[in-house]
């Protein structure tokens, strides 16, 4: 599908603008290599300008009632729903996912904004008993100040509203830096936010080089909080950089999530859920299943059903009806997937379906990889140790349920884990013993507005979603009143 490329601009202090240098970044459709649009290549100058705008807007915004702040967020949700289809189509063009998935993401983005529009009214404090007759102790929560939000390319709509709505509800003003691969969705969302009448400077958008903008945000003392979703490697760099100012961080980092299918599981149910999670967004999901561990009594049946389902998945352009799998985000991502599969095969894994680049016909100019199932996978293979971030499902057979829990916990990551069982005692035991920030029992879906999304260990710190997500943008102040 041919589409006219559009140049989008940054939003700073209530004004749409280009970069000081006039340089731009092009956005390429990963499905066909065509130009989707461009954005300004902003840098330190624009970032500092955005921070100043947010700092100047903070007293007015934080001084509004919670109900007033929430009203803007609920209006934003209405605008997102009104522009649901064009927003989803743009998302598909720049990110590659099927339009059906893009529509679901846009719906979720609106849900987060609406939910925090209501949650804004629920920031509470405490009155504690004093230690002296005339002492009164108050505990209040206040917004941290200017917050910088750095969002990823895999969910360019939901990640914006999940962070921004929580920050705005708390009373913070924000500077948003979207991923360079997918900035257009963020610009569209900010255009919709502008329609709500949001005061200038409350929300600002800077596009450009991640490293330069990131340094400017980290070094600026007016930025009191940074929320980042991305790789563990970059997250560690942010932690090191934050030490100089003891800057508050929320980090949602790498996953490497396991799925365990215990001996008493319903195979049909487990297979359906596994495919729904593993191949969503072409496997590019931070809490996506990385490796599937199946009890030896069920592994043959599981592999048969899994292979049949995966083989039937339709790969193609996201805007075409019926497409279920789009491209990997770029050539570097596809090559990593191919390299991990080559390593597994070299070490003895069998490819039951897929296992190859898709380069024929209309897919020739895109970065497509065939949905893949690997059997006979062993622990020395890189697919069991590294985050795949692609449409590959490695399956490991196990016999000892106690041992498999120890095995999946033996990782530096701890974002999400999934398992299937019909034994309620086993369900509670496994859920409590798995060393992950999120655990799903007999299901593989986790992200909802009211629940705390986030990991432990090297998968991050802090939470997004629920009242926990808003608390990330609040300071606790203790006031001692002596009468």
Description of the structure:
The chain is an alpha/beta fold and 483 residues long. It folds into 2 domains: 6-253 and 459-482, Aldehyde Dehydrogenase, Chain A, domain 1; 257-448, Aldehyde Dehydrogenase, Chain A, domain 2 (3-Layer(aba) Sandwich), CATH 3.40.309.10. It contains 14 helices and 23 strands. It has a 7-stranded mixed sheet with strand order 15-18-19-14-13-20-21, with helices on both faces. A 6-stranded mixed sheet has the order 10-9-8-11-12-22, sandwiched between helices. A hairpin with a 6-residue loop joins strand 4 and strand 5 (35-40). Helix 2 (66-82) packs antiparallel against helix 5 (158-170) and helix 3 (84-95) packs across helix 4.
Compose a concise summary of this entry:
By secondary structure, the chain is an alpha/beta fold.
* Content of β-strand: 15-25%
Fourth CATH level, the homologous superfamily of the largest domain: Aldehyde Dehydrogenase, Chain A, domain 1
Average pLDDT, all residues: 98
Please tell me the CATH architecture of the largest domain by its name. Answer: 3-Layer(aba) Sandwich
How would you describe the oligomerization state of the chains in this entry? single chain
Runs with pLDDT <50, length 5+? none
The name CATH uses for the topology of the largest domain is: Aldehyde Dehydrogenase, Chain A, domain 1
Radius of gyration: 23 Å
């Amino acid at each position: 599908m041919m589409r006219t490329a559009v140049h989008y601009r940054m939003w700073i202090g209530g004004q749409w603008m280009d970069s000081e240098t006039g340089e731009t970044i092009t956005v390429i459709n990963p499905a066909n290599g065509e130009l989707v649009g461009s954005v300004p290549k902003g840098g330190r100058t624009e970032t500092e300008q955005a921070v100043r705008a947010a700092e100047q807007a903070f007293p007015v915004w934080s001084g509004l009632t919670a109900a007033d702040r929430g009203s803007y967020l609920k209006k934003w949700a209405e605008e997102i729903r009104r522009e649901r289809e064009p927003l989803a189509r743009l998302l598909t063009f720049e990110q590659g996912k099927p339009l059906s998935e893009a529509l679901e993401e846009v719906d979720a983005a609106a849900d987060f904004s609406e939910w925090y529009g209501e949650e804004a009214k629920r920031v509470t404090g405490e009155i504690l008993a004093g230690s002296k007759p005339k002492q009164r102790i108050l505990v209040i929560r206040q917004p941290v100040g200017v917050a910088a939000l750095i969002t990823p390319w895999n969910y360019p709509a939901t990640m914006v509203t999940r962070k921004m709505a929580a920050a705005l509800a708390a009373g913070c003003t924000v500077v948003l830096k979207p991923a360079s691969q997918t900035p257009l969705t963020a610009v569209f969302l900010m255009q919709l936010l502008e329609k709500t009448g949001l005061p200038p400077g409350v929300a600002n958008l800077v596009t450009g080089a991640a490293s330069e903008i990131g340094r400017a945000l980290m070094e600026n003392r007016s930025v009191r909080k940074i929320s980042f979703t991305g790789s563990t490697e970059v997250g560690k760099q942010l932690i090191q950089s934050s030490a100089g100012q003891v800057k508050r961080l929320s980090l949602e980092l790498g996953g490497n999530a396991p799925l365990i299918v215990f001996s008493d599981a319903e195979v049909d149910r487990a297979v359906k859920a596994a495919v729904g999670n593993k191949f969503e967004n072409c496997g590019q999901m931070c809490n996506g299943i990385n490796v599937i561990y199946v009890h030896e009594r069920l592994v043959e049946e599981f592999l048969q059903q899994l292979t049949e389902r995966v083989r039937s998945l339709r790969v193609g352009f996201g805007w075409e009806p019926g497409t279920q799998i789009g491209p990997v985000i770029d050539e570097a991502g596809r090559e990593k997937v191919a390299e991990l599969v080559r390593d597994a095969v070299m070490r003895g894994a069998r490819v039951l379906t897929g296992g190859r680049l898709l380069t024929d016909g209309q897919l020739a100019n895109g970065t497509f990889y065939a949905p893949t199932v690997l059997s006979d996978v062993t622990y020395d293979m890189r697919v069991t140790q590294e985050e795949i971030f692609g449409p590959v499902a490695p399956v490991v057979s196990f016999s000892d349920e106690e041992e498999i829990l120890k095995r999946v916990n033996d990782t530096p990551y701890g974002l999400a884990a999934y398992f299937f069982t019909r034994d309620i005692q086993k369900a509670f035991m496994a859920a409590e013993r798995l060393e992950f920030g999120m655990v799903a029992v007999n299901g593989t879906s986790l992200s909802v507005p009211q629940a705390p999304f986030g990991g432990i260990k090297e998968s991050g710190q802090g939470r997004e979603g629920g009242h926990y997500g808003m608390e990330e943008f609040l300071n606790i102040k203790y006031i001692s009143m002596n009468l």
